[in-house]
């Protein structure tokens, strides 16, 4: 983006400076040799021409110039010739049959091979071209590209230019530009730049973009030339092509394992209960596996759910789910998009070992006021954005809430009348453009969830609530054309409260919270076309209050108690270089060094040396004063990747990266629960370290349709993966280390994907074969699981297949279909029984030795857009969806109960029936 | 809000809250190759025969307990004393009846099985149990854990205070002995040889019945003020049951557990309790304080509990709770009179025929209730007339 601005600036500066040249030219020529006027111009303007005599010795020129500006002279002299000129300072370069464009990087695109058979195209748009070009709009107009005199029927010409947003001239990234016959397309880069090789002649150039109104231009291509296009911001973006931003990125960028999800992309996936969800959308891409129905968390490439870093505008989000995980906490209307890194993670990201979900909120509209809303069966949302000061400062605020609580109260005489559930969230963002080099943006986010359940149904507590609060302040500064930087301050807090109030004498609540405050800097330095450096620092302070227990009410006998708070500092410094020696090779090398220190005040148990870490063997308690280091860990994290382009729009990429994670979420169940606890590394809990190697092959087939194929494989090795002893009790545990186990993790897999991202029929298909193992092999029997051998993790699902297809009947009606299949997750089953203390107990198999049945689901969605009349006051669309179309009763869990001495198996299904939903969305 | 929307939300929430649980067939055959040794041993400071039960895990379908016979079992104390246990019954290894653990002493259990595998417990100290300060009852209404129905009855609470004691984790057992009366006590006995009715010399109207706790009751002072458990619910007497129709004695034993044994029981309890929520815990075998010394590198199940014991006995009578709403249970609800009226009654002359008929013998009609005036007899089912059928006529030694 910065770079794009830089180009625009360069352009503006050069234009304005040469407008100041005062001398004017006088002269009269009749069939004079071109060289004569060149000599006169050189003399009068003190400029110098560069050219080859062979090009111009036969060229003659006629014309009268009276007090004419240099540019006018040059235009007149060089138009209608096979010659082009380029004025740079006091030098004029002349070229023969090739235009010179004073824009970075343009040259290399011009030599790109075309990959279609030449077709002879006619020249004239029969009707339109005869019209007066004045006063008609850009769609009726016919534009000429290149030099009419160089036109040769049937040749191929390269056109290049910038696509920008009309009005503010911001570059449009990822716009797809194509002609239909022959089918040739490309997409714009970050600066909005594109280049396209098409046959000379007339064309309709079509443009599509996520945020922009689809448009087209009538062009006549005579020869190589430039053509810049403005696009208008779409009122309701048409998702005719939803996944197009990475069409070129797929094969051209060095990074691998990157998935970009624009918010519009979520529209092409059938929704559950009316909520579009960017995290759920991510689970339809390869290598991303949902834990289960209605379960929070995702597993990326055999990683645990806590190994994913979720950030919103750079601020960490600790709990990403509303309402048991049925919804993600991100209000999709307020988001710009998300970048998901599951391999080849850039050095600027750290702190989690499996993936990064970098979610960015929208820059509020600086031109006009927009109100958007959605009404679904469970939630409603409202979002406002608009300028505070036109073109300078803009504001966005939005909220979402459920009214399930209200509805529940209307229903009496059901078991549900005792249940309550509530959630809501708010987002606020202010974006201020200080000047052309400085932008300041600030955003804040808050989410709240609460629900009540009968006691014993969930871990023995009856009341639950949790909140996420985040803020992010970001100052971006452009030092010069080559260097930009940003300073960011973020803070995050996640906390929950669980309570029990069924028995007054035993009533209590427990409060937990984790907060972090981070100051970071990030710089980009563009040394030249081939080298891009990214470097920065980050300093993070953690504060965890693992538990404060309070009695509730006067009758309660429960005492006040708290677990020692934990504090830590995590600092990191990173440096990386993106080096593109040739257009076929792109290399990325980055190094991140992180340092972690756990700090007092706190207390730490000491355990007998030759004994397992167990409450029975606590021999001493050490106290640490405020700020005293208790444990320190540090190490380098190397991030390498490379892309090697092959012929025919294909490339091979390799990457290696190491990452370290110092905070761990303690999950003792298959899915994430709202009571999951984040704890910090310390004396007994070492940081998790992951090494991932991956290699992939990418191929795009451009014919009548653009098809993208990729194959990626990975191997991941994890140290100190956190797991638990059987029966670990993680709530309010003062010696949490006695329940933890750490061991080696190992996962590997193969990901195949295919994607069609243009046309009326779009979609993608992914198949992943992967395995994930862990080994817990401590020194003592209680620290070993399954005899200390590798065994499959609870999230090991060897086969995972998903497919999303979207068919657009017209611009207003579209149908989408989502299909998911996965192997059942591993579980531990009872295999025998034993008698103890007059009661029968179950003997369990080795951990995770069995699997629940396979999972299969099909969802259907149907979107109806309101009409697209530009002048309409409000725009609306309806979404109809059916989740689990076939009503397959997928097992969420299999569990066993002893009933009258017999062990009976039970299957729990979350959504056993099709769930239909209607949602209404509007925008004013 | 429209009706249909309400229904959608209702549907949604019922899905989430109630989910859907249905039986699941799973084939367990061939999955029990790993039979593990189970050690079930408790040593207390009570003077009694202490038993160590050794068995093996068995398949889920199996009806029989696989006992570990022929093992060598010893209890070794820190002061060097070694007690050898003898196998009184297959798999049951006992001390002699005068044996008791000593407070403050530490013990280890060593087991060498018939095939030579050796197992040893960690060292466990016998801690003195604080006395139970009081046991008291209160009429309460509780939701049933199984059905969610409201149950009325008397909840027995316990108060214990362990200041100056080493432990704060306890296990409880209760033993309830209650008076049991039949509604139509039999006065006569039919003597078959003389074919005559004989007036009973011992009244069979009042007996005693006993129930004992079957589940683990754990109490812990870990979260409490003042090192004191107050109002800890230890036992519930449902008013629909006959237990509190006349008088009942509840004896509660308090076992002072080591922290690790408490944790073992707690986990065992959690592990056996059902799953079925969205957030089920990881299941697996719970490891106690036994370790494998020689033998295959696999688990040994069970635990060696070493605990001090205290106990308290309290009598309860129903009238205490009647002012709060307690309904005294009726014990004659199931007693249908078989020959109630004079027309149906059996005259003395008919008794011999009656008792010799196979029909009546098969029904076990065997008892007499003689209302006034004498001359004919009302016959009822035996459980309604003889308390010994469902109780013990001996008065317990502790009965007041």
Q: CATH class of the largest domain in chain A, please?
A: Mainly Beta
CATH architecture of the largest domain in chain A: Beta Barrel
The separation of the N and C termini of chain A measures 29 Å
Helical proportion of chain A?
A: under 10%
Number of domains of chain A: 3
How many E strands of chain B?
25
Largest sheet of chain A: 22 strands, antiparallel, barrel
User: How many beta strands in the DSSP annotation of chain A?
Assistant: 57
Give the class of chain A from helix and strand content and strand pairing. mainly beta
What percentage of the residues of chain A does DSSP assign to strands (E)?
Answer: over 45%
Query: Helical proportion of chain B?
Result: 10-25%
**What is the CATH topology classification name of the largest domain in chain A?**
Maltoporin, Chain A
Number of domains of chain B: 3
CATH superfamily of the largest domain in chain A: TonB-dependent receptor, beta-barrel domain
Give an account of the 3D structure.
Chain A is mainly β. Chain A folds into 3 domains: 2-96, Phage tail protein beta-alpha-beta fold, CATH 3.55.50; 106-231, Immunoglobulin-like (Sandwich), CATH 2.60.40.1120; 250-923, Maltoporin, Chain A. Chain A contains 8 helices and 57 strands. Chain A has a 22-stranded antiparallel beta barrel. In chain A, strands 6-12-11-8-9 form a 5-stranded mixed sheet, with no helix packed on it. A 5-stranded mixed sheet of chain A has the order 15-22-23-18-19. In chain A, a hairpin with a 4-residue loop joins strand 44 and strand 45. Chain B has a 15-stranded mixed sheet that branches. In chain B, 10% of the residues lie in helices and 41% in strands. Chain B has 3 domains: 37-128 and 261-307, no CATH class; 132-181 and 209-259 and 314-324; 188-207 and 328-389, no CATH class. Chain B has 400 residues and is mainly beta. In chain B, strand 2 and strand 3 form a beta hairpin.
